[in-house]
Amino acid sequence: MPLDGRAVITYSLDVMLADRRCRSVWIVTKEEEWTTFQDIVQKIFPNQSKSICWVTGGKERQDSVRLALDQLTEKGDALVLIHDAARPFLSREIIDRLLSALDQADAVVPAIQAKDFFESSQSIPNGHPVA
User: What distance in Å separates the CA atoms of residue 29 and residue 36, rounded to the nearest whole number?
Assistant: First the structure.
């Protein structure tokens, strides 16, 4: 799905691939979509040096997360950040805050107050609230 002329996934990949702490990116999707996503990644990030791994997703999102975590566990990766690439507004600040919070907890989840979202969506001229 495009957003401002780019595939939505590329916005998240920009942030992840630019972060020096990120050693690899695991993309979990339906197997029949692999070629589409691989083409996007190759076109937009042809010279990136980080490992991009592909995992066939499950029936539900939680199944897909479990399948990826099972493979990551086999590789021994210590910290894992899970991100839904359909949400393109991942930022370095969010990653920094999550990693910092992991110093004091085994798991963390980012959240945005709904009130803030509705205020900003209604401030768009001639826009309609999106929820």
Answer: 10
The structure's pTM equals 0.75
For the chain, the structural domain boundaries read 2-90
Cβ contact 14:85 at 8 Å: no
In angstroms, the Cα distances linking 123 to 87, 120, 129 are 20, 5, 9
Identify the DSSP state of 95: H
- Picking from 87, 129, 127, 124, the residue whose alpha carbon sits closest to that of residue 1 is 87
Hey, what CATH class is 2-90 in? alpha beta
Q: At what angle do helices 8-18 and 92-101 cross, to 10 degrees?
A: 60
State the pLDDT at residue 17. 93
Strands 51-56 and 24-29: parallel
